[in-house]
């Protein structure tokens, strides 16, 4: 018996990295997961991994910034698994510059993926969640506690030089989290955020200046962190190291369990004791 048996979860950006680990963790605890990635192959790999372990998963391919994505994402859960219980807004990437070198496209792209996309997904999910809560009340049954976990960052709690766009988006997501906690309490939905510190992923593992890039809808975005900066950051982290994607997923999982049913509107920093 898993702690999430019978639950249906949406996890955006779950073909790779932290999102993949979140999807695997929720599935391992019994949730049926809708996996999303920009590209079909990573999403397929995550779905296959879940199914090979005895779980259930479906994929919803595409960019979370597409105008029709949110509706498709929610409908995949409703039509494929019959409901919706957990939403994890995880998809995203960074595109860094100091403010005087940051163009409007760079600003808009990061705000779109980290703030507008979660807003659209939650907006699309509201009718489904409200209707499910109403049905339970009319039947005289307890309304199950549903969960939203928004993925923020310590850049959103404290700001970070060179990341005006990302910091603003992640700070905005915390405002959205607190607002939805107030709006959706009547549906017995908890809405919380996890702000990650230094988590070792493909976006941070590549050395800065090594030529590492990711392709985001035709845009080649440079990735990587100066190894000396990583070493300096790890010295400031009380636990003495960066976190793993599996550890990041564990923090998200905490907000998906029944043990967190009376916690809402909160932000937990998953950063090994370090915060900006």
Walkthrough of the structure:
There is one protein chain. With 276 residues, the protein is an alpha/beta fold. The chain has helices at 17-28, 40-52, 69-81, 104-138, 154-158, 164-184, 202-205, 227-236, 245-254; strands at 8-11, 32-37, 57-61, 86-89, 146-153, 189-196, 213-216, 219-222, 267-270. A seven-stranded parallel beta sheet has the order 3-2-1-4-5-6-9, with helices on both faces. It has a two-stranded antiparallel ribbon with strand order 7-8. Strand 7 (213-216) and strand 8 form a beta hairpin. Helix 1 (17-28) packs across helix 9, helix 3 packs parallel to helix 4 and helix 4 (104-138) packs parallel to helix 6 (164-184). The radius of gyration is 18 Å and the shape is globular. 44% of the residues are buried.
Draw up the topology in text.
Layout: E1 8-11, H1 17-28, E2 32-37, H2 40-52, E3 57-61, H3 69-81, E4 86-89, H4 104-138, E5 146-153, H5 154-158, H6 164-184, E6 189-196, H7 202-205, E7 213-216, E8 219-222, H8 227-236, H9 245-254, E9 267-270
Parallel strand pairs: 1-2, 1-4, 2-3, 4-5, 5-6, 6-9
Antiparallel strand pairs: 7-8
Helix pairs in contact: 1-9, 3-4, 4-6
Q: Helicity, in percent?
A: 40-55%
Share of residues in strands: 15-25%
Radius of gyration: 18 Å
Number of beta-strand segments? 9
State the end-to-end distance: 39 Å
Characterize the quaternary organization of these chains. Answer: single chain
Task: Report the structural category.
Answer: alpha/beta
Order of helices and strands: EHEHEHEHEHHEHEEHHE
* Shape estimate: globular
């Amino acid at each position: 018996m898993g702690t999430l048996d019978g639950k249906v979860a949406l996890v955006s950006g779950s073909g790779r990295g932290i999102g993949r680990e979140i999807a695997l963790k929720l599935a391992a605890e019994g949730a049926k997961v809708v996996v999303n990635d920009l590209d079909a192959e990573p999403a397929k790999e995550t779905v296959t991994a879940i199914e090979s372990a005895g779980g259930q998963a479906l994929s919803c391919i595409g960019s979370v910034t597409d105008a029709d994505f949110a509706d498709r994402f929610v409908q995949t859960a409703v039509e494929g698994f019959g409901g919706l219980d957990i939403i994890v807004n995880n998809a995203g990437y960074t595109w860094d510059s100091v403010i005087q070198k940051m163009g409007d496209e760079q600003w808009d792209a990061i705000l779109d993926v980290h703030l507008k996309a979660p807003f659209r997904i939650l907006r699309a999910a509201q009718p489904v969640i409200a209707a499910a809560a109403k049905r339970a009340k009319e039947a005289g049954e307890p309304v199950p506690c549903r969960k939203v976990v928004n993925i923020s960052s310590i850049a959103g709690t404290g700001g970070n030089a060179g990341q005006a766009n990302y910091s603003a988006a992640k700070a905005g997501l915390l405002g959205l989290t607190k607002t939805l906690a107030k709006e959706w309490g009547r549906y017995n939905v908890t809405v919380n955020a996890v702000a990650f510190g230094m988590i070792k992923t493909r976006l941070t593992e590549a050395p800065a200046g090594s030529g590492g890039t990711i392709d985001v809808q035709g845009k080649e975005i440079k990735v990587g962190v100066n190894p000396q900066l990583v070493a300096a950051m790890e010295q400031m982290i009380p636990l003495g190291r960066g976190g793993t994607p599996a550890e990041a997923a564990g923090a998200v999982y905490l907000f998906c369990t029944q043990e967190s049913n009376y916690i809402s509107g909160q932000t937990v920093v998953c950063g090994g004791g370090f915060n900006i």
